[in-house]
Design goal:
Blueprint (H helix, E strand, L loop, with lengths): L2 H6 L2 H15 L9 H17 L8 H21 L8 H13 L2 H22 L5 H82 L7 H26 L5 H9 L6 E6 L8 H20 L5 E9 L2 E8 L11 H12 L3 E6 L5 E8 L1
Parallel strand pairs: 1-2
Antiparallel strand pairs: 2-3, 3-5, 4-5
Helix pairs in contact: 3-4, 4-5, 4-6, 5-6, 5-7, 6-7, 7-8, 7-9, 7-10, 9-10, 10-11
Length: 369
Amino acid sequence: MSTTRRHIFDPLNLAALLTLGAVAFSMRYYDPARQATAWLLLGLFSLGFLSLSLFPPRLRRVEHVVIAVMPIVALALIALDPKPGTAPVLLVIWIAVAFSDWSPRVATIALVVVDTIYYLILKYVAGFGAPLMSVLIFAGFQAFAALCMHYARSAERARDALARVNADLLATRALLADSARDAERLRVARELHDVAGHKLTAMRLNLRALGEDPAFADHPQVRIAEQLSGELLGDIRNVVQALRNSGQLDLATALRALAAPMPRPRLRLTIDDDVRVTDPAIAEAVLRLVQEALTNAAKHANADTLDVTLQRDGALLHVAIEDDGRVRDGWREGNGIAGMRERLAALRGQLRLARSPRGAMRIDAELPV
């Protein structure tokens, strides 16, 4: 199922669609002369509600405009013919949407303004004798919908925070596992070099001495044994060197584990073949750098994809990070970026920030390896 369909058929959205259907069913009680206008207003409200599931994350401003227009359409439908009494339910749907996308303070102020206009419509347009009672009844439903949406969004934020912490733990575990494997490889390499290598050297010297003894000079087995011991000693030295050279941390696995639980942005990772990171502190710095970039791309740039490229230039490791979102105007560095700079500075690295031609954030870092 596509993302759009998942949003539309979300349980909360499905309840709203059923409510819209009930309001549409009540259209037969409207004045026949006004039914066409009523259907048009209900269609506009429904279209605005459904469109909220279609906008990509970067069109947040358009989404806010749609949410601001929805109560105007609902109030117009109420003013058109208040007698059926079903149109105010649209304000319950709207306030749930408002609390989903706006801050609680802004949504509460908007609720008070809209309900005040609703009261005035009932009192001066419809001529109701007790408009306050009707407003308070629907205000209770609105408060219930707002609280449900507020707690639903709070649960989602807690879930996302837990997913980020879990991703951090998985990535850190991957680095620790690599460090443990490297430590074991170094231990084996030292044992081979110090123990097996030492004894093979001693054995080869003894065999060479036997080969020079006139009593054993005519025995070819002594020369063969001395030759084999030399070859075995060379093989052990090659194995030790290979074990030492293979001691690098698997950054790719750690970075993918870090990004896997996040629904957005998607990580596109490119690591050149000559990139070798053996220092856990350098690997940890790269990990935290990408982690902060993922968080900023999701929260501030509404990005769908984050490109991370690791390249080596001599003794320097270059990390280039760029998303496909848009950085808002007036953006300033926060604590996360300051933490990046401090972490890199402690390792004698550098960090540069810039905006790409399309308005996305670009991060360039250099670390000595």
